[in-house]
Design goal:
Elements: H1 7-15, H2 42-49, E1 54-55, H3 56-62, H4 68-80, E2 84-88, E3 96-100, H5 102-105, H6 107-138, H7 143-150
Antiparallel strand pairs: 1-3, 2-3
Keywords: DNA-binding, Transcription, Transcription regulation
Protein name: HTH hxlR-type domain-containing protein
Domain HTH hxlR-type: 28-126
């Protein structure tokens, strides 16, 4: 079989849900979020759990290239913040799954608005980042970053 599974089909077979998991292409607006909720992966985990509880392995396969360590840390931080809860999975295997709490679900509208903003402004955002990175390279590698870190506004910034 080659080792690759359709994550949605796998999720259906393991947890009996037919709700599709969202797709996170590295160039999708969600990946370019300038607005962060929690850690880098929090918003994407919230979106993956929108359709119902998911097992760790399903989340990890879907959120490639996240490592098991980073996903575990993200889920733990989200649990601490009351965004997700860890519960026993239905079935005889004694596995666990993660589900959104009502507090976690309250982020769905916020994330959707932020995604809409990113879709509308993605070109501007990417041009700004490219200009910032290019100016930093022409200033000896860290001129732009150093000015940014100190709160100064270099004359090359728009």
């Amino acid at each position: 079989m080659g080792g690759h599974r359709n994550v949605t089909t796998y999720a259906e077979s393991v947890i009996g849900t037919s709700s599709p998991l969202p797709s996170f292409d590295p160039i999708c607006p969600t990946s370019a979020f300038p607005i962060q909720i929690g850690g880098k992966w929090t918003a994407m985990v919230v979106l993956c759990l929108e359709g119902g509880p998911r097992r760790f392995g399903v989340l990890r396969r879907h959120l490639r290239p996240i490592s098991a360590k980073v996903l575990a840390e993200t889920l733990a931080a989200m649990g601490r913040d009351g965004l997700v809860r860890r519960c026993l999975a239905e079935g005889d295997d004694g596995g666990v799954e993660y589900e959104l709490t009502s507090l976690g679900r309250s982020l769905l509208d916020v994330i959707e608005h932020a995604r809409g903003w990113a879709r509308c402004h993605l070109d501007e955002l990417m041009r700004a980042r490219a200009g910032f990175d290019q100016a930093g390279q022409s200033a000896g590698g860290d001129g732009q970053k150093a000015a940014y870190d100190t709160g100064m506004r270099p004359s090359t910034w728009p």
